[in-house]
Structure formats: C-alpha cells, structure tokens
Design brief:
Layout (H helix, E strand, L loop, with lengths): L13 H4 L3 H14 L6 H14 L3 E5 L2 H11 L7 E5 L4 H9 L3 E5 L10 H5 L6 E4 L11 H11 L2 E5 L7 E2 L2 E2 L6 E5 L13 E5 L2 H11 L3 E3 L2 E2 L10 H10 L3 H19 L7 E3 L13 E5 L7 H10 L28 H9 E4 L7 H14 L3
Helix pairs in contact: 2-9, 3-9, 4-5, 10-13
Length: 379
C-alpha cells in the first residue's frame, strides 16, 4: 500500500521562526523586564533600520498597513473630496484607507499579464480633482517606477505607494517605497516580513511629512498632553517592533528563496501553458519578491479554478485566491463601479489561483504541486 505524499500548506511560518525563536524569546523577555512597551527603543531602532533597508530616511511605525495608508495620505496633504486613483485589483484595505482619509477612490483596471495597475487606463480617469495615485505593488512585484514617475510628473500627482506585499522588492534601480512621496507597508504575520499580530509602517524621505505622521499616530500630539492635530491612536508597539528587528536581517535571503522557488515553478509549469495554466508575468526579474505566487486558469484549461482547487486539496495541497471579488463588486463598495467596468480585474478574479509559497518551500514540494496540477488536467 503506497503512502500519501506529505501535505503542503499554503504558508508555513514555522520554518522561518524556529531557528530564531531563542532570539525572539530573549528580546521579548528583555522588554518585559524593562517595561518598555509603547513608543520605545525597539520601535525607534526598527523604524530606522527598515527605512534604511528600503532606501529612505524616515520610518513611522503604526498599528497596521491600513492606518499607514489612511494617516499617510492625510500627512501628504490629501483633503476631503480629493480623488485618488486606485487599481480595482487590490485588497479592499487600499480602498478603505482612502475613504478613511475622506478622499474619493477612483478605480482603474489592471494589466492582464502582471495584474498591476494599468497606467493607460489611469490616464482616462484623471480629472481636475485628482490629487494622487496609489500604485499597489501586488504579489511582491513593483509597478514600474519609471512609468509612474513620468505619469505623476505629467499630471502633477502625488505617488503614494501601497507596498504592503513588497518588502525590499526592487525594479529599475528602486526599492519599494523609495520613489513616491511616501509608502505604506503591512507587517501582517504572513507577509514577507511579518510580526506576531498586526503592524504597519509609513516610510518617506520628507522630514516634515514624517513629523506630521508621528503626530497623527499619537493622538495628534508631538509632546505629551499637547495636541496640535486631530490624530488617533495607531502605534506599532515595542514587542512587535522587537520581533521585526530580529527578522529584518534575514529578509533579503527569505526574498531570494521565494524568487528561486518561483523560478522553479515557472520552469515546471511552462509545458502546461497550452493547457491554460499561465503564471502571472514577472517584469522585475530577481526584484520580484513573490509574497504570492499566482497563476491563471484561463479559458484554455479543461477544468475551472474551483475544480482545480478542489483536486489539489484532495492531494493535501493548500491554495488561495487573491482576490476572488474585485473592489467594485464588493457589496459595501458597489458605488465604485458596475459589472463590466474593469474587465481585466473581473477576469482575474475568476481565474487567479495562488500556489504554496514561503521560504523553505523545497523543490521537491514544488514538483509535487505541479505534478498534482498536471494530474488534475489529465496531462
């Protein structure tokens, strides 16, 4: 009787945490002994280190990536009623943050090959009220900085990068977060650099913007009990910052491991393109950090995505969908568009499937995944 192959999870955080667990435990113990929990030394150290690693001068830790966008937009001078261009193919947090900043999200379609914002479509969305564009560096691949800078210069727009999935991603000589006026990151546990809860950061080269952001996150106060702005409570706490500090030196290697895993997937999946299995295109070479490894199950496939996902699950292979419903078709946000308005985003939501991807994913496991896909397609 043959034994079943081992299960392959969608994400396996234990592979990166186990080797550094003693460091993490020791650092948490130190913070507990010191009682240094909020706006403390570990946070300041991590803000400086992550900003430097991203190629900018200032980092401001906040409670989550959504707050990093919402508060960051306000710090950039976005006013109520300003229009901001956002891709329809993004996690809903991008849209929520724009609305929290009292601005108006204006959705545009995505490129069908990369799933990134389509700047040609964005051209048609410009109005006299347009003040900014939020490129979402989706799946770990940056939107072209060269094209974005040209676009923003021609239309006098702020570039605010949503880099929640792109920690230390690179393209055209830039790192994610280094070419816009500001950028937002999320440190949700499953991100390439994740903490043990929620966490986020805004990074920028603008000293005044960073100062304003620090005020906004701390009740609108630069000094205790003196509130110069209408702020909120959104601070990355010291325990999470300490964990992220320990993990940061490993991030570049973890990103390389993901990119190598993606290359192996690409090679093995090449023969399946005629069967309708098409990986999302990489236009960034080794700069793509593959937070997500996504494929499309196109109309050429003999089976649909749901069937393929079920068949893989039966073989112990977990998968995900990023994202099953585009923003304008979400029940709470149907005012942002109608069915058919953003056809590429709508097609992707029907076809996209995310395969297992994490540092430590072995070639043997990747081969197991691809063989299972082939069996599911009867090829």
């Amino acid at each position: 009787m043959s034994s079943r192959p081992p299960k392959i999870p969608f994400v396996n955080l234990s592979l990166q945490h186990q080797p550094i667990q003693p460091q993490i435990v020791a650092e948490i113990g130190k913070i507990i002994e010191q009682g240094d929990f909020i706006l403390g030394h570990a946070l300041a150290e991590f803000e400086t280190a992550f900003a430097a690693a991203s190629g900018v001068q200032y980092g401001v830790g906040v409670a989550c990536g959504t707050d990093a966008i919402a508060l960051g937009l306000q710090a950039c001078g976005i006013n109520p009623g300003d229009e901001i261009i956002v891709p329809a193919n993004t996690f809903i947090a991008t849209v929520i943050a724009v609305i929290q900043a009292k601005a108006i999200p204006v959705l545009v379609d995505c490129d069908p090959e990369t799933a990134l914002i389509d700047l040609t479509a964005a051209e048609t969305a410009i109005t006299s009220k347009t003040k900014a564009i939020i490129p979402v560096h989706l799946y770990g691949q940056m939107v072209s900085p060269r094209l974005l800078l040209d676009f923003a210069n021609r239309h006098d727009l702020i570039i605010f990068e949503d880099a929640a999935q792109a920690h230390l991603a690179e393209r055209e000589g830039y790192r994610a977060g280094s070419f816009g006026k500001a950028a937002a990151f999320s440190f949700y546990p499953s991100k390439n650099l994740g903490c043990f809860g929620d966490g986020g950061m805004l990074i920028t080269n603008d000293a005044e913007l960073a100062k304003t952001m620090r005020t906004f996150r701390n009740y609108g106060a630069l000094s205790k009990y003196l509130h110069t702005e209408i702020g909120t409570n959104s601070r990355l706490d010291n325990l999470q910052a300490a964990i992220l500090n320990i993990k940061l030196p490993y991030l570049e290697k973890w990103n390389r491991d993901r990119n190598l895993a993606a290359q192996h997937y690409n090679t093995l999946l090449e023969p399946l393109k005629d069967k309708g299995i098409v990986p999302i295109a990489n236009h960034s070479s080794s700069g793509h950090i593959y937070h997500i490894y996504a494929i499309q199950i196109t109309e050429k496939s003999p089976i649909d995505r749901h069937t393929l996902q079920q068949k893989l699950a039966q073989e112990g292979i977990e998968t995900g969908i990023h994202y099953p419903v585009p923003c304008h078709l979400q029940p709470a946000y149907q005012n942002l568009g109608n069915p058919g308005d953003f056809p590429h985003a709508e097609t992707l939501c029907q076809q996209i499937l995310s395969l297992p991807m994490y540092p430590g994913l072995s070639n043997t496991e990747i081969e197991q995944v691809v063989r299972a896909i082939g069996r599911s397609l009867n090829c």
